Amino acid sequence: MASSALKAHLKTLKAHRNRLKRKHMRELFEDAGRFAGYSICMEDFLFDYSKTRLDEKARDALIELAKSARVERGREQMFAGRKINETEGRAVLHTALRHSSDNPVMVDGEDVMPKVRAVLARMRAFADDVRSGAYKVTGGKVTDVVNIGIGGSDLGPAMAALALSPFHDGPATHFVSNVDGADLHDTLKKVKPETTLFIIASKTFTTQETMRNALSAQKWTQDQLDSKKSGIHFAALSTNLERTREFGIDDDRTFGFWDWVGGRYSVWSAIGLSVMIAIGPNHFADFLSGAEEIDTHFRDAPLAENIPVMMALLGIWHRNVWGFASHAVLPYDNRLARFPAYLQQLEMESNGKHVMMNGKEVTEDTGAIVWGEPGTNGQHAFYQLIHQGTSVIPCDFLLAAKPQEQMADHHALLAANCLAQSEALMVGKTLEEATAELKAKGMDKAEVKRLAPHKVFEGNRPSCMFLYRELDPKTLGKLIALYEHKVFVQGVIWGINSFDQWGVELGKVLAGELIPMVKDADAINGKDASTEGLLKTFHALRG
Ligand code: F6P
Questions:
Q1: 503-542 maps to which CATH number?
Q2: pLDDT 10s digits, 319-362
Q3: What is the model's pTM?
Q4: φ and ψ at 442, to 5 degrees?
């Protein structure tokens, strides 16, 4: 939306904030309907945002903001295949990848659904063959799949493969992303060349890190196997057929997708092949259907009952109205360990922008800094700062009601910790309460006075809870799609393009220039004093 309109809305919202600043969340919870009024339930999936500093008037003002930003119109443009990625002239249709009805999805006058279904059918056939052993490599059945990719061509499948490991009944899956040779080296130590399938995942098939790793994997395979037959150990996931052919991967082992699938939105496309091979095509279909359910919810639910819309508005409320710069994602689900990293790309590559769609500088802060670790580990590391530090960090907690394994009372302990953290952040502990506690322990007056301030928790710190039945493929699909649409709504409100990533380009170009200088000290030339000094020291240290 235009920055002047956003400014006007933020002015109203800041007046609500000033009013709410005088209230502790404890007071908001005096309303018996607080939980029901500030949570959204979709069958076995609940989003609770009651522990935020929001009341009805402030929420109404946020909904007004979404209406005036024409979020609903933007959403329909996206689903309709309009080229809303204006700086790259592309449509944004990751939703088509999980679209199961017969309705066409049009881009440039063409229904893309037949192509989507054709690739999905080929992936399914290939995954079935790899899983059953009908597809044979030099040593027979594939025992290990190594996905080589980076960014969206790694984070999505790597995160999903870990999250869905209880459903994993295919070959072992490995992910190599970093150009640091240690990554590939350590992975190759775990696999045998004769039974390994490498999947080279790269939308462009030009990404430096991926191409380096792919070539090294190819050489490693050729060095140990009949090099003429080594091709059967490689498959490709890409939009760039020319490059996959040049690399030597047959078209029948190449799975395509399209420019309207952004890298960080591509786990639903051919980029998900390693996940499909791991968990099987039927579970992968459940994963897609979970996301599709959220697409339908996002399109149909009124704004105030729309989970991704409310997630986005809460993000704006925290970032632009309260000035909270970072956002923690805290899964109480160990297998979601890579989910925060996945969301870092989704949110920060999408909305880390300083220029609006119209080329003008933004006037408000955009994308929050996203970070997190699974609970309960985080509790013993950085939660101190979340509870008592000087920065307020809104948190998203994620919790399954049912664990995948029944192990003593592990899950009860996990759930209790998760609920306790969100309660503690909200309720806090006053000086009076801390004092009373210490007195009750029989401490003398002076000691109580000395210690009590250290025991105070301001509380009043916002958090949201995602509570779902269990972490299965469908739930994972839902979770990812919720955050995707959240990012989209925020992009519309900020008036930025959430679907390009020019900010990653400069570093890539400079790395290209630096490679010869890193390889050879005599090539050092034309660099600033720091870079030159670092290069020279690098060479000196290397000897
Ligand atoms: O880091 C920039 C980026 O273009 C990401 O957007 C993308 O997911 C990643 O690189 C990998 O790109 P590719 O799939 O083309 O190798």
A1: 1.10.1390
A2: 999 999 999 999 999 999 999 999 999 999 999 999 999 999 99
A3: 0.97
A4: 85, 20
